[in-house]
Protein: DUF1883 domain-containing protein
Organism: Nonomuraea endophytica
Amino acid sequence: MQHLYWDLGSVAFGARFEVELRGSSCRVCLMDAEEYQAYLDQDAYEYYGGFYDASPVELEVPYDDD
């Protein structure tokens, strides 16, 4: 499956990110490295976000990445 990926590094709880959509609807997923690897392996994974068709999409980090 085609997807875009950005490594945000280590971020603290409450940090906010804004995603600008251009031209189409998409699913925006915020996940840690372990969940992303599960996604790549086509295993079960969890993420924060959802399916969006309007910009901007604002997501907040739900926990510290330790």
About this structure: The chain has a mean pLDDT of 91.
